Amino acid sequence: MRPKKNPQKDLNKKSGMFFVIGLLLVLGMVYTALEWKTFDPIYNIDVAMNDIDPSIEEEAPIFQLEVTPPPKPPVLPTEIEIIEDDDPFEETEIIAIEVTPDTEVVDPTDFEVIEEPEEVKVNWITIEEVPVFPGCENEKDKRACFNDMMQKHIRKNFRYPEIAQEMNIQGRVNTTFMINNDGTIGTIKKRGPHDVLEKEAARILSKLPKMTPGKQRGSAVKVSFAIPITFKLQ
Predict the structure, then answer these.
(1) Residue 226's domain spans which residues?
(2) Which residues lie in coiled coils (predicted)?
(3) At residue 19, what are phi and psi to the nearest 5 degrees?
(4) What is the largest CA-CA distance in the chain?
(5) In three state form, how does the secondary structure of 125-157 look?
(6) Global pTM?
(7) Closest Cα to residue 203, out of 159, 140, 139, 168?
(8) Has residue 2 been placed in a domain?
(9) What is the pLDDT of residues 213-234, one digit of tens each?
């Protein structure tokens, strides 16, 4: 029996080739779609080619600056006016000191010599009789009593500054103050980590009571005393 179709015309034999050709076409289209780039159009406008309206006329304004002439030199007066000064003029009388045979010899004993007392300052360690804090008059060891009363005074008047608490400022303030020869508190010197603590330490020492002054060789003298005040946050 003869086949109905010609074997040479059978397209199934070339299906693989058609598949490869179709695949290549699809890949080419995909590649072209991915690599396709578009750019914004560029408009080149030549400004120099613009025509200027000849009816427009521009003129630059002209400013005229006024030159200030130099000042004229002052004219001296032809006549000099004399003004009389009514203020009295005090002349210093100069006494000439010339030694002559008639010069009177002055006895040195006729002059009164005024001696100014020399101010003596003694520190706490070398003072013979230390200043007496009020309440320590009858104590045998007045140095120890003085130190105890100083500590009590500091604890009683101690006040931690609020601004120092907020800023977390703490540390030790070294203070030195003078007990005058009349028992009052003199110059207070302080040195610490911050001005706020130094001011508080000075305030505490300024509230010290009047004391019995210290004595050196039987005379009242100034005595310097140093004490540290510690500010510590809990």
Answers:
(1) 121-231
(2) none
(3) -65, -45
(4) 190
(5) CCCCECCECCCCCCCCCHHHHHHHHHHHHHHHH
(6) 0.48
(7) 159
(8) no
(9) 988 888 888 888 888 998 888 7
